[in-house]
Automatic annotation (TrEMBL):
Residues 1-21 are annotated as: Disordered. Keywords: Glycoprotein, Secreted, Signal. This is CREG2 protein. Belongs to the CREG family. InterPro entries: CREG, CREG_beta-barrel, Split_barrel_FMN-bd. It comes from the Eukaryota. It comes from Upupa epops (Eurasian hoopoe). The keyword NAD does not apply. GO terms for cellular component: cytoplasm; endomembrane system; extracellular space.
Length: 174
């Protein structure tokens, strides 16, 4: 109810919210803001390849938590098995995702480096899973509405959609 045409419906087990004005107050509101407004994040895995097998390994990946007008709080990714991080996830789906406040008002207004501890960071941990068939259309809308250029990425790379089933949330907000 109340959805705009082309907005898509949220898959089951997701929540939606609209950010109006200042958004939800407090830590939950700040976490939702970071999930909504970050277009990339740092995904850490346990390496499943070569000489670094078992060691921590990470990479920056594009993400979206839903179409522009329908944030869900669930991070979606458009990935290829050629990416070492994705190859790791296909063998062991446990991962963490860190979202920085790189575009936040506090850091920008005060000319503070995004890695300064005073800039907020949100970290999710959980399982990275392939998006089920019934959610693929929503994942497409989520990624392509925020990252239109990915439609032009080489098809030969066997792109597919993953999402994180979040188990823990850690917000660093000093």
């Amino acid at each position: 109810a109340g959805r705009r045409p082309g907005q898509g419906s949220a898959p089951s087990r997701m929540f939606s919210y609209r950010r109006e004005g200042g958004g939800a107050p407090g830590r939950a509101g700040l976490a939702r803001f970071l999930a909504r407004h970050n277009t990339w994040g740092f995904v850490a895995t346990r390496a499943a390849h070569g000489k670094i097998q078992g060691a921590p390994y990470g990479n920056c990946l594009l993400l979206s938590d839903g179409p522009v007008n329908n944030s869900t709080g669930i991070p979606f990714f458009y990935v290829t098995p050629r990416d070492t991080t994705v190859a790791d996830l296909l063998k062991n789906p446990v991962a963490s995702l860190t979202l920085p406040e790189s575009d936040g008002n506090f850091c920008r207004k005060n000319v503070i480096d995004p890695e300064d501890p005073r800039c907020t960071r949100l970290t999710f941990t959980g399982q990275m899973v392939t998006v089920p068939t019934e959610e693929v259309e929503f994942a497409k809308q989520a990624m392509f509405s925020r990252h239109p250029v990915v439609r032009k990425w080489p098809r030969s790379y066997e792109w597919f959609f993953m999402k994180m089933n979040i188990e823990h949330i850690w917000l660093q907000s000093w």
